[in-house]
Design goal:
Rossmann fold; about 140 residues; 4 strands
Length: about 140
């Protein structure tokens, strides 16, 4: 079986809309590289991936990258609310938060704003619905 035939046979009937909160290239580092490779693999199965990342203006930013939103400006007070509102707007089936304290921490806060996002996702029940794929997994 050819590679593209194998990929097509692995696609699923009900694609998911996945939102990833993570470091992402052009940021350099293991987490950004891992996220990029994971996102590529998820897309191969026919899913859509929206990425919320750091602005990364000092290394070129994300303006020319489709479905990448450079909103996670941890130097800006209230950045976690901006990220949460974007997640609400995207209405994903799955929210994947890639964690490493240095991604979300500023001096003295130990990355606590990411906990705020998790709390808001729970309280506001995001994702809002269970896709057919998630329902089948949950059974």
């Amino acid at each position: 079986m050819k590679e593209n035939e194998r990929e097509q046979s692995q696609s699923i009937a009900h694609p998911l809309n996945v939102c990833m909160v993570t470091a992402y290239p052009p940021r350099v580092g293991g987490i950004a590289t891992y996220a990029s490779e994971l996102i590529h693999a998820i897309k191969r199965y026919g899913h859509t991936v929206e990425i919320i990342s750091h602005p990364d203006a000092e290394v070129g930013g994300h303006e020319n990258q489709k479905n990448v939103y450079g909103l996670m400006d941890i130097q800006r007070a209230g950045w976690e609310r901006i990220v949460f509102k974007k997640i609400q707007e995207l209405q994903p089936d799955v929210v994947h938060i890639q964690h490493e304290y240095g991604l979300y921490a500023t001096e003295g806060d130990y990355g606590i704003p990411i906990v705020d996002i998790l709390f808001l996702l729970h309280v506001y029940r995001v994702p809002f619905r269970l896709s057919p794929t998630i329902r089948s997994i949950a059974r």
